[in-house]
Design brief:
- The structure holds 2 protein chains of 2 kinds.
- The mean pLDDT of chain A is 94.
- The radius of gyration of chain A is 23 Å and the shape is globular.
- Chain A has one domain (18-531): Cytochrome c oxidase-like, subunit I domain (Cytochrome C Oxidase, Chain A), CATH 1.20.210.
- Chain A has helices spanning 13-17, 22-50, 61-96, 105-127, 141-144, 149-176, 189-221, 234-268, 275-288, 304-332, 341-364, 366-372, 376-406, 412-438, 453-482, 524-531.
- By secondary structure, chain A is an all-alpha fold.
- Chain B is mostly helical.
- Chain B has 6 helices and no strands.
- In chain B, α1 packs antiparallel against α5 (147-180), α1 (19-54) packs parallel to α6 and α4 (97-128) packs antiparallel against α5 (147-180).
- The model of chain B is unreliable at 1-9 (pLDDT under 50).
- Classes of the chains: A mainly alpha, B mainly alpha.
- The A-B interface holds A 99-105, 107, 164, 167-169, 171-173, 175-177, 202-207, 209-211, 213-214, 217-218, 221-225, 230-231, 233, 236, 240, 509-514 and B 1-4, 13-16, 21, 24-26, 28-29, 32-33, 35-37, 39-44, 46-47, 50-51, 54-55, 132-135, 144-145, 147-148, 151, 155, 159.
Chain lengths: 532, 216
């Protein structure tokens, strides 16, 4: 007989929409975020289709500007920022520390509704003439554009609160709800990275909120903060904006790094190398993230001395990131590596993130940045870090916890096929963009000089391969839901963290009895000894 | 902790082991929320600093159009409201519901006085054309871009007043709950948390007062 799980009890749509269970809220987030990811991907494919040739008669320049703005705003604010913390974090964090739920379940549900409301406001902007400013909303253009900048920024403002709510919840949960025996240094590294992420969410997001409020007030009342004619300064907006948005890229990447720290030891069957170095590097990244915003503004006319300092601080970020990469690599060394789908994504992460990270140094160095500033090099770097990094981490984590979340296993063959397609498509799309950027093709234009055509065509072909890969991936995961919930082992990957000790899917109360932690999350030898 | 217990009727939520853990969690969450509030206002303080550093004489000339007496009145009223709120929490810990209710009422009263006088002051400024940004028509302040002072003034006192208004709504709700008998020395977390918020809102005013009314 099937044991009752959080998926079955209680039943009915209302029980889902009003649920306070962190696992169900994770699924609500999964559905909503997946829908917005689909929307963002459609815009991405539109962009690549338009750029398959210069002067494409498919759209006007104005429409193109709106399309890339929507792609950016949706992917950043509605997909990649909430994705890993709100889906995988919500599901796994309480389980991993042996808690019954997050500290504030009602706040957790409120976070989802806030996200939905914010996202609907952003969607409404489609109807009222979508913003054409780029997702960065730079002044002075954003104060003059005739498009609905106010609606879009209002949507982002509202969605920002959902991020703050999640952050507050996770910090309190980690501090106060750990199971007996779960000391700070027995916490899984995914928990550490979510903790560091939450700190950034709590500290940075309010600054974005006030920045967007100022932008709205500027448009409505003409208060003149960003208008030099009235004694203001448009560069002040950039300072405000990047004070949030640089830390925000670590909101996107840190949780993915946490996922990788879980996957690599499990699938290499080795205790993670440098546990505390990885844990502290997350906190170091969180701290440094607040000190480097000026590297987005090297060509904005900020003081030279400021640029030099920001550039040096930016190089410092490479240290904790390098610490992680080397520790993961050292964990793989002499490991018994199995190429299960989650691990394949983790290895893809290592490869793609290394490229993304190293090209970041080109942009952090003053001289080379001036050459590639605002070119496709930036676009390629950003997508290697965000899609090659953050998204591969998310996909790896999703494949890792999928059997725990739904109690069903997906087809190994099809998910590996999808992974290969995604990998090929991704590199085909974005690697040519590094070259295009180096050759000087500027970003955010609907057209380009004829000599850039071959590489652009290659990039467009890659985007379609990537699209097909993602369709196979989604189909493969959804098809698994139709499979019978068979006698799936509670721990199909032989992982050592607490969530694998309960049933798949877990019961509503997470654990039948309060777990007590005796060994660390990656002590596989002790685990085997315990079982025999 | 027994995981199968589900005492929803009790003030203790089912995912906490005991009241102490629940209270400590709420407190931590509230402090984190207050940090976000500080950063929200921090953006405005940041741009105030930027404006004032680049236009010192405007701020000096413009501040004399504000009445220090009003500023002082707000400060006194808000500090009094903080005291009454703190006393309300002291009394609920002694299970004195009636006194708690009266003290919360006094807090609301002080908050309403603040908003009413503030509204009166704003109306006066608006009447004189001392409006933010492009709507500014007043001619009595020397220097270029005198509207800057009022842009900052309306945004910062405006956001602050919104916080007072929100706080008042919550306190009214707490009064309903106190009357209903939800709180006692055993459980008074919402009162304590709202108290923390209210004190922060007061503290922000204590910074706004000299920044606008006591320049130079």
């Amino acid at each position: 007989m099937q044991e009752s799980s959080y998926l079955d009890q209680p039943r009915g749509l209302k029980s889902w929409l009003l649920t306070l269970d962190h696992k169900r809220i994770a699924i609500l987030y999964l559905i909503a975020v997946a829908i917005y990811f689909l929307a963002g991907s459609v815009f991405a494919l539109l962009i690549r289709t338009i750029l398959a040739r210069p002067e494409n008669p498919l759209v006007t320049a104005q429409h193109y500007n709106q399309i890339f703005t929507l792609h950016g705003a949706i992917m950043i604010f509605l997909f990649i920022i909430p994705a890993t913390p709100a889906i995988l974090g919500n599901f796994a964090l309480p389980l991993m520390i042996g808690a019954r739920d997050v500290a504030f379940p009602r706040l957790n549900l409120a976070s989802w509704y806030t996200y939905i409301i914010g996202s609907l406001v952003i969607l409404y902007s489609l109807h009222s003439g979508a913003a054409d400013t780029g997702w960065t909303f730079y002044t002075p253009y954003s104060t003059q554009s005739n498009s609905s900048v106010i609606t879009t920024t209002l949507g982002v403002f509202i969605a920002g609160f959902s991020s703050v709510f999640t952050g507050i919840n996770f910090i309190a949960t980690v501090h106060k709800l750990r199971a007996p025996g779960m000391t700070w240094f027995k916490m899984p590294l995914f928990v550490w990275s979510l903790y560091a992420t939450s700190i950034i969410q709590v500290l940075a997001t309010p600054v974005l909120a006030i920045t967007l409020v100022l932008l709205i007030l500027e448009r409505v009342f003409g208060v003149g903060i960003f208008d030099p004619k009235m004694g203001g300064d448009p560069v002040l907006f950039q300072h405000f904006f990047w004070f949030y948005s640089h830390p925000a890229v670590y909101i996107m990447i840190l949780p993915a790094m946490g996922v990788i720290s879980e996957l690599i030891p499990v699938f290499a069957r080795r205790k993670i190398f440098g546990y505390s170095a990885i844990a502290f590097s997350s906190l170091a990244i969180a701290f440094l993230s607040f000190l480097v915003w000026g590297h987005h503004m090297f060509v904005s006319g900020e003081a030279e001395i400021a640029s030099v300092i920001f550039s040096l601080l930016t190089f410092l970020v490479a240290i904790p990131s390098g610490v992680k990469i080397f520790n993961w690599t050292a964990t793989l060394y002499k490991g018994r590596i199995s190429f299960d789908p989650p691990m394949v994504y983790a290895l893809m992460f290592l490869f793609l993130f290394a490229i993304g990270g190293l090209t970041g140094l080109f942009l952090g160095a003053l001289a080379s940045d001036v050459h590639v500033s605002d070119t496709y090099f930036v676009v390629a770097h950003f997508h290697y870090v965000m899609m090659g990094g953050a998204m591969m981490g998310l996909l790896g984590g999703l494949h890792f916890w999928w059997p725990k979340i739904f109690g069903r296993m997906y087809s190994r063959f099809w998910s590996l096929t999808a992974a290969v397609l995604v990998f090929i498509g991704f590199n085909l799309t974005f690697f040519p963009q590094f070259i295009l950027g180096m050759k000087g093709m500027p970003r955010r234009y609907y057209t380009y000089l004829p000599q850039y055509k071959p590489l652009n065509v290659l990039s467009t072909v890659g985007a379609y391969v990537l699209g097909v890969g993602l369709v196979v991936l989604v189909w493969c995961l959804l098809a698994s839901l139709k499979r019978k919930r068979q006698t799936l082992s509670n721990n199909p990957w032989n992982a050592g963290t607490l969530e694998w000790t309960t049933t798949s899917p877990p019961p509503t109360q997470n654990f039948k009895t309060q777990p007590v932690v005796k060994h660390g999350p990656y002590d596989y030898e002790e685990m085997v000894a315990e079982r025999t | 902790m027994n995981m199968n217990d589900n005492p929803h009727t009790d003030a203790l939520q089912h995912h906490f082991a005991d009241m102490e853990q629940q209270r400590e969690s709420a407190k931590l969450g509230m402090w984190l929320f207050l940090i976000t509030e500080l950063l929200l206002f921090g953006g405005l303080f940041g741009f105030y600093t930027f404006y004032r550093a680049s236009n010192p004489e405007i701020f000096y000339n413009a501040h004399s159009t504000l009445d220090v007496k009003f500023g002082a009145l707000y400060t006194v009223v808000l500090i009094l409201s903080s005291i009454t709120f703190a006393l309300a929490i002291y009394h609920i810990r002694e299970n004195k519901r009636k006194q708690t209710l009266m003290l919360l009422g006094a807090t609301v009263l002080f908050g309403v006085i603040f908003l009413a006088v503030k509204g009166f002051e704003w109306a006066h400024h608006i009447h004189l054309g001392q409006l933010p940004g492009k709507y500014y028509t007043f001619t009595g302040i020397q220097g270029t871009n005198p509207h800057i002072f009022y842009s900052a003034y309306y945004m910062m006192t405006g956001l602050h007043s919104l916080h007072v208004l929100g706080g008042l709504a919550v306190i009214l709700w707490l009064m309903v709950r106190t009357r209903r008998g939800d709180f006692s020395s055993y459980y008074f977390v919402p009162l304590e948390m709202t108290g923390l918020y209210w004190h922060l809102v007061d503290m922000i005013w204590i910074y706004l007062f000299p920044l606008f009314y006591l320049v130079g």
